[in-house]
Amino acid sequence: MENTNSLENKIYMKIHRAGNEILLAACDAWLVGKTLKKGDVDFVISKEFYADVLGDAEMLKRHLEIATIGNLVGELAVKCGIEAGLIDKENVIKIEGIPHAQFALIV
Q1: Which of 50, 56, 74, 91 has its CA 20 to 30 A from that of 8?
Q2: What is the pTM (predicted TM-score) of this model?
Q3: What's the CA dihedral at 70, 74, 79, 80 to 10 degrees?
Q4: Which class is domain 11-104?
């Protein structure tokens, strides 16, 4: 029997607005609360920044359609950004093996 409560295939997302900009922060749900390290930098995947709505890849793709800025963390979230044409694979970095990408649309 499938565990529908599992965070394995879920994505947290949160919209932040600043003037005309719509920043969409999204991460694979299991990453919320984790801190990744790269050199001297601690990358905190905080509930406050990333976690408002829990959804799936299709929901994230709909939210990406309205975003002007994006901050995506995790395999699922970054894959959605790539599939939406907002992220180039070459621009994805990995922090402790976890993909991270950002985009900003110039209008």
Answers
A1: 91
A2: 0.91
A3: -50
A4: alpha beta
Per the listing, tokens 């939210």 go with 63
Instruction: Give the E-state strand segments of the chain in sequence order.
Output: 11-18, 21-28, 35-38, 41-44, 53-55, 69-73, 93-95, 98-104
Residue indicated by tokens 């395999």: 75
Per-domain residue ranges of the chain: 11-104
Structure confidence at residue 6 (pLDDT):
66
Integer distance in angstroms from the first to the last C-alpha of the chain? 47
Q: What confidence tens digit (pLDDT) does each residue in 49-76 have?
A: 999 999 999 999 999 999 999 999 999 9
Nearest-angstrom CA–CA distance, 4 and 103 = 31
